[in-house]
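INFO batch 0412 | record 1 of 1 | parsing
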Amino acid sequence: MSAPRRSTTRRGAGRERVSLLDSAQELLREVLAFGFPADAVVSRYFRAHARLGQRERHVLAETVYGVVRNLRLWRQLAQGAPTGSVELRLLALGWQGELAAAGFPEALLGWRAQCLAQDLSGLPPAVRYSLPDWLAVRLQRQCGGEFEALAGALLRPAPLDLRANLLKTTREQAREALREQGIDSEATPLSPWGLRVAGKPALQRSDAFEQGLVEVQDEGSQLLALLLAPRRGEMVVDFCAGAGGKTLALGAMMRGSGRLYAFDVSQARLERLRPRLARSGLSNVYPVAIRGERDERVQRLAGKIDRVLVDAPCSGVGTLRRNPDLKWRTTEADVERLAQQQASILAQAARLLKPGGRLVYATCSLLESENQQVVQAFLDAHPGWRLLDAAEWWRQQQLPGSIEGPWLRLWPQRHGTDGFFAALIERNP
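INFO prediction complete | emitting tokens
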């Protein structure tokens, strides 16, 4: 007689825990295939497994993201485990639920404790901080003695930042509205609109979110809108708008006046802007799906625009706190290809500006080949443009600390934001 199959239903607490561990192994295998962004894989898995409760989803997501963040180091440590599949060993190192009750073999738990207690300082930095060699080399070359602080910061999960919608509220009023919903927050140190939320509350179910009082947006991203400084009544273009976080911030600065175009090559991304736009109260935003930077709808606006934001497609290295899978899905060849695309986008976007108009070129990358080198090549080829000093802008905004101009560079280890680069350039009158 064959052995009875183990049930994966919730008939008992022990079986529920084993089932959760099975789910974790299944989800981790799918994520580590790196065929799609990790957040998309996790969302798809949860939709396909509606039986999972909120607590279980939290354990699965936090555990899997922890493994992805520390993947290189933990894979090396996992080679010395006494038992279990590769996925099980990785999960043991990163489990975010009740460890003793999760169903791991006892031998694996003892090994885990020894692993996490050992001195890792003798390992190569790229292994210790779970970075691919090419990325570690580039960041070490750029950051010098600050490399380890940066690499350590990129391993820590990012906080949840919000932007208060000043069309509908003040930052303090938004904070109070969140507090009434049981969501604690504090004012961000750099953005005058930002709130940093404690933990991971069910924000989208709150009245403050549904009424458009707040939007999810990293503090560094908010500063890009502040740097562009659009004015009421102007013609403004968000050239790579995506789902529109910065578009909404720009619109709020314009107080809903003027005309604000949100261009993107993805109709699907622009569709995600529409519900956000409805909550915002803005009426001056015009989403436009374009075929590329040379689209005729772009060309028709040449020489007519006051301000342009170019948040260019990039490697996303500055967002590894939120998207740790990017470091495993991106190659050096990708970075070089992106730099060529960024140069083309910047050149075409700049043609939109009227004399005296301003453009912010920005990425969420930390790599000079996507940032300073792209901007400098543009300036060398366009003598009718000049680079403005972001350090002077920082002082004028009376922001804490200082930055090293002329670029705006935000660093997780220094500023507590995602990694951002921005250059403010002006077309000569």
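INFO post-check: The chain has 20 helices and twelve strands.
INFO record closed
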